[in-house]
Amino acid sequence: MTVIGTLIGDRFRLDEKVGSGGMSSVYRAYDPTLERWVAIKLMHRDISNEADQLERFRREARAVAQLNHPHVVTVIDAGEDEGAPFIVFEYVEGETLKDRIRRLGRLPVPEAVAYAIEIGRALECAHAHKLVHRDVKPQNVLIDPDGRAKVTDFGIARSLEAQGLTATGRVLGTTDYVSPEQALGHEVNEQSDIYSLGIVLYEMLTGEAPFKADTQVAVAMKHVREPLPDVQRLRPEVSAALAAVVERATAKETQNRYATAAEVVHDLEEVLAIEAARSGQATGEATSVLRSLSGDTADFAPARLRHPRRAFFLTILALAIVAGVIAFFATRTEKGPGPAATPSTPNLSNVTLSKNAATDYDPEGDGEESPSQAGFAIDGLPTTEWDTEQYEGGFEASDKSGVGLYMDAGSPVAARQLDLVTSTPGFKAAVYASDSVPGDIEGWNKVSRTLTVRENQRFTLDTARQPFRYYLLWISELPEDGKAVVKELGLKK
């Protein structure tokens, strides 16, 4: 029995027991050398002579010591005290994510997404070191005083290169969050952690784990056999985009699940930015995560939330451009171009466009991108086309983030889909919307995912039922030959 006040490793004085499991107990302890509090995980002495348990405990110390990440609890030291091994971690003052859910019930949607992003980033780091956590659950996520999530307890983690102690056939982990393949004793890899992360996100959004049964084995079998309850039915304000991330992360078959944690994080970052764009504000940990966005996911978030000073000057510029655009379009009364040449979609109807409704968009260059061809993209004739200029070396060589083509719907409309026909598949694009024509891509609201375009590509739009007048196809990466072609665009509501 370990007594409070005991000196561990001739250095750390135990102060309070803060947790216990079948293999070890966790104590808050004081380090007089550096004058700070630490957390010590001390293996139970009655099992410290079991070779496999001892090696598993030691492996945790070695594995987590490799990880240096702001969302992973840091290992400070490790050793043995009278034959009982221990690991010293940074002490995180605060509560577990499970405690937070129990206290608050369903978390605010942006906060839930922000925590899922931070957990996902921690898993990215672990997976990059060939380490699978195997027990991702809200009990193993600590929320520090600054509101950040930190993943802990890699006690049953397994190296992808290791064999033996956690071999195929053994079911480890908490069954409320266990992946189907882990429940069946099959091979476990990064995708198993992704499934568990999806279940944690589901619980943050709904306030409870998805499956209940009389035994842990019965719960595990529900993960194998039963579909996940509809998160939007339980939480109607969850967007279609977020529900799609939950669905894909928790797919029963690994071929239908996200392949990497990076993919999950990318889509969650887009969802968080869309949520912030809808509300025009962000609070709590969502604010910190928004400001850490980079790449194409940052395009979703309002610039004023990421770069407050620059946003002011962009607003002034955008207002000047809008005045000219409104005057220009106010004179357009031409008859529409005719039926769209894009495929029809059940339950959706085409947005009628005037023949001059398409305009090229090149805010980072000379202001023109094949302007004389813009109307060909909406003329209903797949034999005509609009194309970008030729960019040898892609946009990077021209110091651009992209170019595009926008459509004027004539009046605000809550569009639900944009269809694209191209003869140059392979470029990357996304759809943006606005009530005006901003002078910079940051002024637009991103309403779709960034996709690698096929010959007939459908973009699902998520405007939260908010109507917009202008819809922009923004091309952010070109095909190998340096030019993208748009044969037809169609907007549907």
General description of the model:
- This protein is of the alpha+beta class and 493 residues long.
- The protein has three domains: 7-90, Phosphorylase Kinase, domain 1 (2-Layer Sandwich), CATH 3.30.200.20; 95-295, Transferase(Phosphotransferase), domain 1 (Orthogonal Bundle), CATH 1.10.510; 307-492, Galactose-binding domain-like (Jelly Rolls), CATH 2.60.120.
- It is 29% helix and 22% strand.
- A six-stranded antiparallel beta sheet has the order 1-2-3-4-6-5, covered by helices on one side.
- β3 (24-31) and β4 form a beta hairpin.
- α3 packs antiparallel against α9 (261-279), α3 (109-128) packs across α10 (285-291) and α8 packs antiparallel against α9.
- The longest helix is centred in the middle third of the chain and has 23 residues, at 308-330.
- The N and C termini lie far apart (68 Å).
- Residues 160-173, 307-317 and 328-336 have low confidence and may be disordered.
Considering the chains and any ligands shown, give keywords for the structure.
22 strands; Phosphorylase Kinase, domain 1; 29% helix; six-stranded antiparallel sheet; 493 residues; Transferase(Phosphotransferase), domain 1; alpha+beta; 13 helices; Jelly Rolls
**Lateral strand order in the biggest sheet:** 1-2-3-4-6-5
Helix content: 25-40%
Regions with little confidence, pLDDT below 50 for 5+ residues: 160-173, 307-317, 328-336
Structural class: alpha+beta
Separate helix tally: 13
Our estimate of the beta-strand percent is: 15-25%
Rg, rounded, reads 27 Å
Distance between the termini: 68 Å
Strand elements, count: 22
CATH topology of the largest domain: Transferase(Phosphotransferase), domain 1
